[in-house]
Design brief:
By secondary structure, this protein is mainly alpha-helical. It is built from twelve helices and five strands. Helix 1 packs parallel to helix 2 and helix 9 packs across helix 10.
Length: 359
Amino acid sequence: MTTRRFPCPEIFDQHTGEAVSESIRRDPPGSSDICVLDFSATQQMDTRGAAWLLAITDFVRSRQAEVRFENAKGFVADFIELLDPALHEVSVKRKKAFGWSTVLDKLVAVYNELADFGNLLFDAIYWTFVAPIEGKGFRWNLFVDEMYEMGVRAVWINSLMNCMLGLVIAMLSAAQSRKLGLDIFVADLVVIAFARELAALMTAVVVAGRTGAAITAELATMKVQEEIDALRGMGLKIGQFLVAPRILALLVVMPCLVTLGIIFGVLGGSLWGVYVLGFDAEKWYNQTVSAAQLEDFFQGYAKCFCYALIIVLVGCHNGLRVEGGSRGVGLMTTRTVVMITFFVVLTDMLYAALFYFVL
């Protein structure tokens, strides 16, 4: 163990702080060494100097060495004391970056989150499907409001997005089929793609960006403002009061939005087929209708109910787990959109494997 002293200048600001940092980095301390910053000559320190002090502390502790501040007096001593929580936080973060304790903390956090999600899932299923049958009440007013918010207000953006996607699919497929003289089969491809896959997937992405983020933001704001605790204090069940109406509302409106997605997706492809490829509208329509099979629509609608559950449950889960203030609300809202997108694609992959290998 070696003790190394570094005298600090009379004014500890951006330039002198950088000079002290460079002198330490040129000859970095070894493990278990002690770096002493001597402030006996320092009379002034500003915020930029304090920033360099934090950087020096972080660097020294990253080398598994110890840093000490000695002989500070007056204003400088008060400034260093004010920085003490930040200096301690740097140390804690550095220690947690190594070792099995970090892995164990992560595993415990994952377990706790899965347990919270399991409790939320149980409450949601009970208060949505079982409790109303037992006569324990259901918030029908909120259910109607959520149907309007999730469904009616999403009609135009969902229809537009699917129409544009149908146009793109028709463009790309026509470029390939034209080489073989099979342009008319673009109609088959568009209707099958939207019935089986694209309408449900695009609708889920749109609803995730609108409804999933909105649910998280609303519940997270209520949690931050302690409204959730107030509801629990009044004896109200969060699953019954906030979660169940949203689940049932999205389960009702999601198939309707998917239906509109199929219609407008096929319409987008038809615009390209009729006005660019030059087919007669009646011929294109007949080709589309002949290509559509009931099992194709079954695949698409089977997915949309799972997507609806994912969107609401993930949105409520993240909203109820928020920590901190407005920044926590923003982080959880972003997390919700990312998680919903991931789980929707994962579910879609599982359905694809099921229909390909089993059904």
